[in-house]
Amino acid sequence: MADTAEPLKTPTDIKSNAAKSVAEALNGILADSFALYLKTKNFHWHVSGPHFRDYHLMLDDQATQILDTTDAIAERVRKTGNTTLRSIGDIARHQTIKDNDETFVPAAQMLIELREDNLRLVESLREAKDIVDEAKDNATSGILDDWTDLAEERAWFLFEASRNV
Fold it and tell me: Is the Cβ–Cβ distance between 154 and 62 less than 8 Å?
């Protein structure tokens, strides 16, 4: 039997304009998630100071949590009949979270920067929630709640860890 479907055209009941809006929002979140993951790992590798062990472990846990969401984000994009990010360059074109290429960042600044980045991600997740709710994409809407909760928790931990720095 010949394959008559368009390549990578996953069937969906979401109207094409709405599905495209959902995919654009999710691809932005995916790009920011990769940027935040790499920044968190960078800070994990380079943290120093009297709270080294605590911060090193916390940042590793947070990086793992962030990376664990990326596959689910990309798969939601595909389930809406769209395509997702393909390369580091594609991530760079979509990310809003800024990279940090400094050779040394004090631990206190790391925690503050990551907290602000996680809060920026929360903002993007809330904006995406409005888009997916309008598209009646209930599955994505529910998952966005979970991702928002995780990002809020990371921001909270970073805030608390930075209070006495």
Answer: yes
